[in-house]
Structure formats: C-alpha cells, structure tokens
Amino acid sequence: MKIKTQISSKNTQLLCGFVLENSNKILGLKKFDTKTTSTINQTLQDMEGKLGKISVIPVPGGKQAQRILLAGIGKKENITNDTIRFVSGKIALKARELKLKEFSVITPPTFVIDQNSSVSQIIEGTKMALYKFDKFKSEKTENSPDLTIITSKSKKILQTIKTAEIVADGAIFTKSIANLPPNECTPTTLANFAKTISKNSKMKCNIISKSELEKKGFGGIIAVGKGSKNEPKLIVLEHSQGPKNEKPIVLVGKAVTFDTGGISLKPGANMDEMKFDKCGGCTVLGIMKAVSELKLPINVVGIIPSVENMPGGEAYRPGDIIKLFNGKTAEILNTDAEGRLILADALAYGEKHYSPKAIIDFATLTGACIVALGTNVAAIVSNDDKLTKKINDSSKKTTEAVWELPLNQDYMDMVKSEVADIKNIGIGKAAGTITAAAFLRNAINKTPWLHVDIAGVAWTQIATKEKSYNPKGATGFGVRLILDYLQNLKN
Ligand code: BES
Ligand code: ZN
Ligand code: ZN
User: Fold this and answer.
1) 366 ligand 1 Cβ < 6 A
2) What are the residues facing 16 on neighbouring strands?
3) Which of 7, 8, 244, 393 is most buried (most C-beta within 10 Å)?
C-alpha cells in the first residue's frame, strides 16, 4: 500500500472522517450537497459517535467522494493516541472489505489531537491492521488499499509520515518473521534475516557460529542448543551513527525458534504456540531495521541469541552444571527454563564487549508473567529507576503497556544453588517472572538494565484484548515502544 497526503479530498472511493460522541458533525469534513448532508446527519444521529462504531453511506454521483465513512471516536476527554490508531485500523479493514483501491482519511482538528500525533496513529493503525500472515496460503485474496491522508501540508508533517511508515514497517517486519513456522525458521534463518537487513543499510552484522560460541565460553547458548540438529547462532547487529566514543544502547532478544521444553518436555496442548518463543529476538531485529532506516544519530547494538530447544540425544539435562559466559556456574533443574540461560550469555557479552549506556532485553520468558499480568501488559524488571521512567514514558505514548515488578536481594537469594553459583529455577511457583529476572540480573554488573517479559503480549492469545491493528498472531510488541525511547534519547 502507498500513503500520500492532500489538503482536500477529491474523487476518492471512500472519504473517512472521525466523529466525537453525540456530535452533529464529521470532524474536518467540507460541505456536501443537501441530500448527502441530510443522510450524514441521520447517520450521525444513529451512530452517536460511539467509540469504534463505523457507518458507510453512498454518495451517488459524488465528485469529492463515492462514499463517506463515519468513524466514532467516543468522548473528547477519553481520546488517546490509541483511539486514533485502533479506529484507523478499523477503517482500513472496512476499506479492504469493500475491495477498494484507495481511501482517504481526514485528520481530526487540533482541539481533538495534534496533527502530528494523529497522522502517525492513522499510519500505524492502517499499516498494522492491513498486514496479514498469508505467506503459506495458496490464495492471497486480501488487497491493501492505498491511503490518502487529508491534512495540512508542512515539512514537519511529511517528516512525521516518513517516520511513522518506518516505525510501522518495523513492527510489521517483526510480526512477519515471528509468525513463521518453526520448520521454516531456524537460528540460521534468523541470522540470514539479520544479514539481509545489514546489507540494505550501514549496519555491521556479525554471526557467531556454534564452534566460535564453544571456544568463547557461551555455555548457556551451547547447552540449550545441544538437543537440536539446527545449530545455535549469536546474531549481532551494530548501528553506529552516533559520535564514535559514545556508548551504545544494547538491545538483547530471546530467539528460541521452537521451545519443546527439552528433556523437561512441555505438555502437548498448544505447544505449537512455542514457535513464538523467538519473539524477543524478532522484536530486536525489527527495531534495528527501523533504527537504520530512520538513520538515528546514535549507537545501538542488537544481540540475538538464537537456539532451538529440543530433546535430542545430545540434549542438556536436569542436573547438569554449566558455565555461563561471565564465568558463573549454573545448575540446570529444568531444561524448559532455557531462555534465561541464553540471555545470561548474551547480556554478559553485551556488557563486556560494548560497555553500554543501557541494556534492554526482550523475552517470552515465563508463563508466570501471564498469571501475574495477563495478556495485555508486559512485565518489566530493572536495576535503574531513570531507565524505568523513560520506558514508562514511552509506554504511555505508544500504548505498549508495561508494569514494573520488584527485584530485591530476597529474590536474588531464591536462585542461589547448593552445588553451583546459581540455579535456573526459583522456589516452586513463587514469583516465577521475578526469579527469572533475578537469574538474568546475575549476568549484569553495573550497567543500567531493563528486562521486558513479553510472554503475554508477544502474540494474540485467548485473553488478548482485540485490537484492529493486532490481527491474529505475533503483535510486534516492543518495536514501537523502544523506537520511541531511542528517538527521544537526545532531547
Ligand atoms: N518460553 C517459555 C515461557 C512461556 C510459556 C512463554 C508460555 C509464553 C507462554 C519458557 O521457556 C518456559 O518454559 N518457562 C518455564 C519456566 C519454568 C520451568 C521455571 C515456565 O514458564 O513454565
Ligand atoms: Zn522453556
Ligand atoms: Zn522458552
């Protein structure tokens, strides 16, 4: 789909405008003939501008537009970025349903929401809603109509459009690789995606192979990868567009291309969903792709430990004691708690190799996270209040919801082992998300670090709140959040 802007609408198949609750007008709509105006007025009365309601009326012989779409956005005081985003998604899906080639959306006036925000959200909502995972469908019938945004034209708006398109494409890229089935997406496949991204940009890409990982002491990644024929990889992408001696932000993402649980095998029900155990890594890849396209004048490094957790004859076992990259020993008590092992290696590598300003990691780490927070909010755990505040600010702007969980010495003590330095599970079912984070905390010395457990939010599950821009499957959670954080680092 293409996106363009116009100051006023002409000859569009579908002209869409937003409507406030109980309002008697479509926001920003220019005058129509008397007959159309009376139909509009009747429809306005019927729909009452209720949030998420959509009505389409025909305009026979209309020159400005063939149809008008009224989209309810509810009460003015309740409108957020997400309102415009998800209503825009609904509009786009309606345009697709009507099999249109193009449609136009009028930005609401500034007393409702500022122009740049609404333009961004219209683009994010539209693009993300129109994405569909149909790579393996023989019949690809879904069309993606082009979008014209009716708005004032300024340099700033054009820049906003460019940025919003790159951000939305980043999230869509993350969804599209996260949705791939496990037989079509191994650690090598992910490494190839990273190489492709780097070829199209100024980024450096380094893939650390199994033999090098062994030599360099990545004991966690090696152990988890042992049960599978598909070899583990450590994927590193460097975006270096900031001052030479400026410390980078390091982003780490768990990419278990399939998590069977290993020897501590998972039950069969819904095991297919464990193809999404690579979502953290896919999020980092989507962010890096967008960071390079946005040409952000900063240094960012993406580190993605990727393995397949399988119960093969060579697989690591409960009872094993392994040595992690930072030299600490870990007692394995459950091979299904594999994410923290590969992340611990990657975090320690990131800290040692890059002395970063901050490290942020993403992982579908614990089922306990879904018990604690459900499927619409991600858990965050951090050792740094300033970093947490920044992420909370970006979370509010992007509506990618996060909630902080505590991490004190008592939790750290819960992952101490009798026979090794640490153990890879806590005590019973108590605070599973925090004990996983406590394990990760052992990999970090002093660097400000923030961990995001995306187990509940990385893909749509039964309890997931339906959103037009999150069709079934991977959601790309974290891409918009971190791109907002990175774009605001300097100001
Ligand atoms: N990938 C899973 C966590 C997960 C489960 C994410 C369900 C999303 C939905 C992780 O590797 C895992 O299996 N964790 C175990 C840890 C336990 C053995 C301490 C869990 O959560 O059960
Ligand atoms: Zn697991
Ligand atoms: Zn896992």
Assistant:
1) yes
2) 69, 105
3) 393
Q: What is the DSSP secondary structure assignment for residue 229, as one 8-state letter?
A: S
Ligand 1 pocket, 364 CB below 6 A?
yes
Closest-lying ligand 1 atom to the alpha carbon of residue 424 = 19
Residue of 336, 342, 369, 427 to mutate, ligand 1, most atoms within 8 A of C-beta:
336
Would you say the CATH fold of 173-487 matches that of 9-150? no
The response to whether residue 487 sits with its C-beta less than 6 Å from ligand 1 reads no
Are the CB atoms for 163 and 231 separated by under 8 Å? no
The reply to whether 340 belongs to the active site is yes
Residue-wise pLDDT tens digits, 223-253:
999 999 999 999 999 999 999 999 999 999 9
Q: 314 exposed, middle or buried (CB, 10 Å; 0-12, 13-18, 19+)?
A: exposed
For residue 366, the ligand 1 atom closest to its alpha carbon is 21
Cβ(334) to ligand 1 under 6 A? yes
What confidence tier does 416 reach under pLDDT thresholds 50, 70, 90?
very high
Give start and end residues of each alpha helix (H) in 200-278. Answer: 210-216, 219-225
Q: CA distances (Å), 11 to each of 19, 61, 299, 352, in order?
A: 22, 10, 46, 59
**Which CATH fold topology does 173-487 show?**
Aminopeptidase (3.40.630)
Whether the per-residue pLDDT at 491 is higher than 60: the answer is no
Q: Would you place residue 141 in the very low, low, confident or very high pLDDT band (cuts 50, 70, 90)?
A: low
- Please check the confidence at residue 37 and state whether its pLDDT lies above 60: yes
- Considering the candidates 195, 266, 323, 357, report the single residue annotated as catalytic: 266
Q: Which CATH superfamily, name and number, covers 9-150?
A: Leucine Aminopeptidase, subunit E, domain 1 (3.40.220.10)
Residue entry with tokens 């505040």: 389
Backbone angles phi, psi at 33, to 5 degrees: -65, 165
How far apart are the CA of 121 and the centre of ligand 3, in A? 32
**8 SS3 class:** coil
Q: How far, in Å, from the CA of 266 to the mean position of ligand 1? A: 9
Q: Nearest to residue 12, comparing CAs of 95, 81, 104, 100?
A: 104
Q: What are the residue ranges spanned by the domains of the chain?
A: 9-150, 173-487
Write the pLDDT tens digit of every residue in 82-97. 999 999 999 999 999 9
Task: Please give the structure tokens belonging to residue 413.
Answer: 């003590």
Query: What is the pLDDT of the chain when averaged over all its residues?
Result: 97
